[in-house]
Design a protein that fits this description.
single chain, alpha/beta, Rossmann fold, 2 domains, 8 helices, 8 strands, elongated
């Protein structure tokens, strides 16, 4: 019987042993590097994912208000600056659910597939608060810094509480705006002299039992006395809710887009504001 002898082979060479000892450390180092890269670039990735795409409407955050932002279909095809439409909702849509804003007005039309040749920003007012013109001026600054907004074509429209907010913002900062379209609201007639150069198209239901049509009529008359040439549309058989009728008026958007901030307002806006 022959006997075959086998030589024992070491389980691992010294170099392999050292590598096996270092493997956990290398894995930990690799994990740490990946974690650092994610930490550094996640805000950029998150911002990219949340940024509105041309022709789409997404939720955004700012220091003043959370809001829906819509960009025109051609927005990404150049460096052109675009008109901005600021939409202010009524009291029933206050809160922290931006989806509620899609129930009506421009954001509702966008949700239904309507496209606009302008940026549309629709902020949401928190519960138990009203539109504040100082916040809205800051909000305009924030939106203008984030998107390519043409400062000479900034338009404001709003319904009910948003109608009041539209009138109020227009009397506080008329030099920032090219035109306004308030619905079912009212304002401070003593400040209407500040609207002398601002194009206005106001809307109201004649049988409105929530905000009487007189509230809009008084602001229109006061603006006329100041030298403005406002338009007024009264719906003879409608009450407070005129959103669908007004915002489905094609001529409204063509009218807005035909307006630019006057040169005098542009120069005024360039002056330092008083502290």
């Amino acid at each position: 019987m022959s006997l075959t002898r086998y030589q024992a082979v070491p389980l691992a060479e010294p170099a392999l042993r050292r590598r096996l000892k270092l493997a956990p450390l290398e894995a930990l180092l690799a994990f740490s590097i990946v974690a650092l890269v994610v930490q550094l670039f996640w805000p950029l990735l998150s911002d990219w994912r949340q940024r509105p795409r041309a022709g789409g409407q997404v939720e955004q955050k700012s220091a003043t208000y959370n809001y829906l932002a819509y960009l025109p279909q051609q927005y990404d095809r150049g460096d052109e600056r675009w008109p901005l439409l600021l939409f202010l909702h009524g009291s029933g849509n206050r809160g922290f659910d931006l989806q509620a804003l899609m129930a009506g007005g421009p954001p509702g039309l966008i949700a239904q597939g309507r496209h606009f040749p302008m940026i549309v920003a629709s902020p949401q007012c928190p519960f138990n608060e009203h539109w504040r013109s100082d916040f809205l001026v800051t909000f305009l600054d924030e939106v203008s810094a984030r998107f390519r907004v043409d400062p000479d074509r900034v338009y404001v429209t709003g319904y009910s509480m948003g109608g009041y907010g539209t009138w109020d913002l227009a009397t506080v900062a008329p030099e920032r705006l090219a035109a306004i379209a308030p619905l079912s609201g009212g304002g401070d007639v003593s400040l209407a002299h500040r609207l002398a150069e601002l194009p206005i198209w106001a809307f109201h239901g004649e049988i409105d039992q929530t905000v009487p049509a007189a509230a809009t009529k008084q602001m229109v008359e006061a603006a006329e006395d100041a030298g403005a040439s406002p338009q007024l549309t009264l719906y003879a058989k409608k009450g407070h809710d005129i959103c669908d009728s007004a915002y489905r008026t094609p001529e409204l958007y063509a009218w807005l887009l035909s307006k630019r901030r006057p040169e005098s307002a542009n120069l005024l806006n360039q002056r330092p504001r008083a502290e």
